[in-house]
Structure of tyrosine--tRNA ligase:
Amino acid sequence: MKVINVNKLTSAGCRVKIWIADSFAKMNKKMGGDLKKIRMVGEYFQEVWKAAGMNIDNVEFLWASEEINARAAEYLDLVMDIACQNTVSRILRCVEIMGLSETDEMSQAQILYPSMQCADVFFLEADICQLGMDQRKVNMLAREYCDDIKRKNKPIILSHHMLPGLQQGQEKMSKSDPLSVIFIEDEEVTVT
């Protein structure tokens, strides 16, 4: 869906920024929290999108860790403002973006994660946010934040549906669970 939507956006004249959320993956303990492994997966995703037909002429791949470090004070101010505008219960309603529920035990970083992801929208100066339905709650948080700060031009949310996982009852495929997902290099016999 990302390839299809990005190609539609770029053919309509949009410039697309793809935020490779390496620092977020570390916070959410993906790949054991190993930033080198996470970086490798991010590079792999770029190649998968290209192989799947993404036209990257008007696409810029940005690493969250590099962009945030380059403008750390600006980013931290934005995250703190979003955090100050919201209650803990409102933020906890967004933790499913990490595959968690409000009642799961989580680290302090994971509680901050929704405010950070919301900040990304404004940090990237995004007019359109194109993410999966699993990210919808944090996109709505960004729109609500616009109301809080009296910002008139709210980001447009372009959500795509998720492919269901291969295991019984899974709402979406998860690259974290190899038994629930089809990988790009899987042979036809494996997929069948």
Q: What stands out?
A: The longest strand covers residues 16-20. The first helix runs from residue 2 to 11.
